[in-house]
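Internal ticket #5521
Category: modeling
Description: The requester needs a full-assembly model to guide mutagenesis choices. All entity lines are attached below as received. Residue total reported by intake: 671.
Assigned to: D.W.
Attached entities:
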Amino acid sequence: MHDVLTTCVYCGCGCGLYLHEHRGRVTGSSPSRNHPVSRNNLCVKGWHLHEFIHHPSRLTEPLMRKNGRLTPVSWDEAMNCAARELGRIAAASDGKAVGLLSSAKCTNEENYLLQKLARAVLHTNNIDHCARL
Amino acid sequence: MAGLATTFGSGAMTNSINEIENAQVILLIGSNTSEAHPQVARRIFTAMDRGARLIVIDPRRTLMAKRADIHLPIRPGTDIPLLNAMMRVILDENLADDLFIEMRTENFYGLRDMLFRFDLEETVRLTGVDLARIRAAAQLYGRAQKAVICYCLGITQHVCGTGNVQAIANLAMLTGHVEKEDTGVDPLRGQNNVQGACDMGALPNVFPSYQQVDIDDYREKFERAWHASLPGQPGLTLMQMTHGGKNGPLKAMFIMGENPVLSDPVSDRVEETLDNLEFLLVADIFLTETARRAHVVLPAASFAEKTGTFTNSERRVQMVRRVIPPLGQSRTDSDIIMDLAGRLGYAMDYESPAEIMEEISMLAPIYGGMQHDRLENSWGLQWPCWDRSHPGTPFLHKYYFTRGRGRFTPVVHEPPAELPDDDYPFLLNTGRIYHQYHTGTMSRHSALLSREAGEALLQLHPEDGRRLGVRSGDLLRMRSRRGEVQVKAELTETVRPGEVYTTFHFSEMPVNRLTISAQDHFSQCPEYKICAVHLEKV
Ligand code: SF4
């Protein structure tokens, strides 16, 4: 069992908190005492932050639409299809017909990579996220 | 946050969250702070325990409004005339900070001329707030030594969102309430890493650190770093992408961790747009309403399964750390993007998120000194942080605004795109609640959060309830010009007669079927806060 210091994902306050790990599962959370925002305190969302992580309806395998239904496939098959289709449509339209939505719930590093993928690889500035929502 | 950027040159919170505790006057506009930003609310209550006064501008009697010294219950969508009236009072009573205006700002005369032509009685008619209260609020704010304005989506989600923000900035500059510690203008960001997503250039018109794509110098810098030729035309915004319909501009989309079917206005239109794409790729942790429409769905890792950084509302960049490996076959979004880039013939080989951050720090000046090793050993750093020896910046605009001088931008009232009429007599307002988060992708999968707030309720004033013959818990049919949903009523005096309020967290009650796609002209933020609806008992 160990605790890992991390950052809450439920609002822009950005509380620092510890996630408790026990035998490969995240079992709880508690506030950081000295973190400048949390100062030993969390709101109800932070205290229950761990609950969605192991929810049984988490997606655990890639899915692809076959005969109208989403069907489990291998990563290789899913990624090949994704790369082929995005690449084809981007090339045919010089990037104009592809669009990407990034997420305010993903990390900075992931947001950086996604806009780099849009601009440098798919040749489009059609990238946005939910900042306005 | 376009409004703050044109005025100050930077669109982020000017203070740190903890500075709010030391303010003498706090002005809250369009922010249901105790529900959406609990830690900020906590600082506000601490400040009040120390003697601070609270002014709340909000159509609803929220918890914050009940605790306020002065509550200005304005008609939705009339923030600009109210703020202009406060500024006029400040001018009339000589509470403006002349030295600050002289030294630090420009275009004051433009603002002054507009305010002197301004009719105070007209404001009372538009906003529904009496003049004595407006005057008291203006005096309180104008006289304070240290005053903070906090605003949230109640300000930006209007057709005049950018204008609203500019009016707020004008008020702060007029009284010199910007450049100091414990004093400033603080937009509270809705989602946990909105600030970071903007900083990283997940926007159609800028690279990381707000370097515009259509300025050759910036573009060439990124072309050299990325070894690729880059498009110089700003791209499409979220609304342009998701509301194109059958003949929209896009044929393919990649949606990472977003659920636009639930979060965007006029969901029918979003569904039509997505259903007509040739190819839709979605990466998410759950099978969301958006993922169900995809051709390929990739299982993503949750925040507990990856390492990286988030940037909070006060610009603090801090570590997110991996606790357990990705569940099942799921992968982190970085792994997915790198794999995809590789298959498209572009090598993205980063050993670790720390290496990605190193590249960011070389290209994004405000993140210049942000490397994981520094963030690991501290409580994070607040941008701008120019280099490895820079300590970070708790409050912005200390001696000069990011754009040099702060610019007064006179703004005038712009009526909402749709107001109640005989056919649709109620004004519908939407927002968040304490126990749920955004479209509920994460929070609805939490047992406790769902027990406390498991379904959407429509807040309705008891007077209206009597007229319609409904009691709390009765089912209502709510119809707008765009669609219809069924929802349970909750009678409460939090809302005023003629106005109703609900949340968008629940897919069973997709309220965004009703909302309109009218947007702010500059930032293209949709007007979630106002539309007209008809109600009847089922
Ligand atoms: S614990 Fe609550 S206040 Fe703190 S970041 Fe999480 S949601 Fe926000």
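Resolution: model delivered.
Comment from assignee: Residues 75-93 of chain A form the longest helix (19 residues).
Ticket closed.
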